[in-house]
What we know:
Structural class: alpha+beta
Strand content: 35-45%
Domain DUF4166: 412-570
InterPro entries: DUF4166 (IPR025311), NAD(P)-bd_dom_sf (IPR036291), Sacchrp_dh_NADP-bd (IPR005097)
Mean pLDDT: 91
CATH topology of the largest domain: Dihydrodipicolinate Reductase, domain 2
Number of strands: 27
Pfam families: DUF4166, Sacchrp_dh_NADP
Low-confidence stretches: 56-65
Distance between the termini: 61 Å
CATH architecture of the largest domain: 2-Layer Sandwich
Strand order of the largest sheet: 17-18-19-20-21-22-23-25-26-27
CATH superfamily of the largest domain: Dihydrodipicolinate Reductase, domain 2
Domain Saccharopine dehydrogenase NADP binding: 8-125
Protein name: Saccharopine dehydrogenase
Helix content: 25-40%
Amino acid sequence: xxxxxxxxxxxxxxxxxxxxxxxxxxxxxxxxxxxxxxxxxxxxxxxxxxxxxxxxxxxxxxxxxxxxxxxxxxxxxxxxxxxxxxxxxxxxxxxxxxxxxxxxxxxxxxxxxxxxxxxxxxxxxxxxxxxxxxxxxxxxxxxxxxxxxxxxxxxxxxxxxxxxxxxxxxxxxxxxxxxxxxxxxxxxxxxxxxxxxxxxxxxxxxxxxxxxxxxxxxxxxxxxxxxxxxxxxxxxxxxxxxxxxxxxxxxxxxxxxxxxxxxxxxxxxxxxxxxxxxxxxxxxxxxxxxxxxxxxxxxxxxxxxxxxxxxxxxxxxxxxxxxxxxxxxxxxxxxxxxxxxxxxxxxxxxxxxxxxxxxxxxxxxxxxxxxxxxxxxxxxxxxxxxxxxxxxxxxxxxxxxxxxxxxxxxxxxxxxxxxxxxxxxxxxxxxxxxxxxxxxxxxxxxxxxxxxxxxxxxxxxxxxxxxxxxxxxxxxxxxxxxxxxxxxxxxxxxxxxxxxxxxxxxxxxxxxxxxxxxxxxxxxxxxxxxxxxxxxxxxxxxxxxxxxxxxxxxxxxxxxxxxxxxxxxxxxxx
Length: 574
């Protein structure tokens, strides 16, 4: 490229998603960013904040170390040709919305860009808007411009995940995708309005291989979002939402029998109330939830309780190349405030491609399939975002830990992978055992059969595979106790369940460098769920040290204190 900066006009540049895009691109010195919206005052305030040093770091766009950032006023209802000609952007990104409410002149911004030979992209999530952008294809090609719609989580990221899983299948029959935002993320009013616009209304989905009428925020499916290598989100129901994938999937997969796109919010009781309100729309007690959009937004902010984590999933079912049934899932988990960056990572990837001279084909089309999963994964490295693929249902079952870990299995150190390779095996070594001194701790240890305290105790562990579970028989210097390990089902899916007598402890398997951590996520007593604040916990992990398998198991609780802690090493016997 020449010395002139590449100019990007971000419509809605100080909004929920446009502002995050500006922050992502603000460190790129080859860019000139125009932060645009109807209010020049708000745009100026945002740019001033962007340039303000924070936590000792220099502000973005300051001293020419990053992008040149400028606040501008832009009115999509004004003279678009005059505004665009004056600003002279190379790319216009529409991050405003809600695209569902743009009306008969929905594409006027895209059309104005094409007429002036300016590239265009948006993060639309409206099925009709994204699917209809193809009507501008001939004009865009004639002008030598690019117009991509839906460069967001759905459909750009979801289709990138689909394309990564598709090679495992000879035929894809079912596709489901969903987004689970953190309860602590402040959802923008435009997003709430978009969802409220179709609550209780008909949404076209695929059922039994034919188009069918689903109901927005009423139809549901339960999913546990579990990215390989991260503690799963809590199991939740996802309510049907209108997303571009529903219109685009049948053309992508000719044999598609069913489709679903959903949102799973926390707290779930609030989501159930929202679904109840959608039923009132279906029964025509209410004409629409749109008048209540601001109230719904305030409720989501007021009841921000639970974990500050979000996620996404894409699940595919069909037939593999051997003719066997296969279900494959791609899952993502974002920690803290990182989740809301995901919808604009696709635009960031497009901009960085254009900066390197890598340009998609001219024309106007949905963004489904425009980017590869690797493009998104490279951007995820800047955040606390974990993603990966799991084979969730294979007729030739994998070893227990490999099934649960999915693609994160490949990150295990060799000593850990060997011990959990499945089948009948024996490992032996030495251990140090500590026991808690409290009365309740001694009672629990006696019921389960934990060994007595000791130094340099000989230990042997025998692993026996029994269908889909493993029986671990531990022998600590002649003191034997057993447990059963298996994959959780239903709400406990993607968790490792370990059964000690009447107790069942549910754990997430989380690789952490050379360690595999076992994080308690729930527990049961004779099948009855018990409060998490009373759950047995402790610092429990496995690790490879000098090529040898080492273990550190700690079991205790608020009521018992330390019950038992045993540490040591094991070698697999030939």
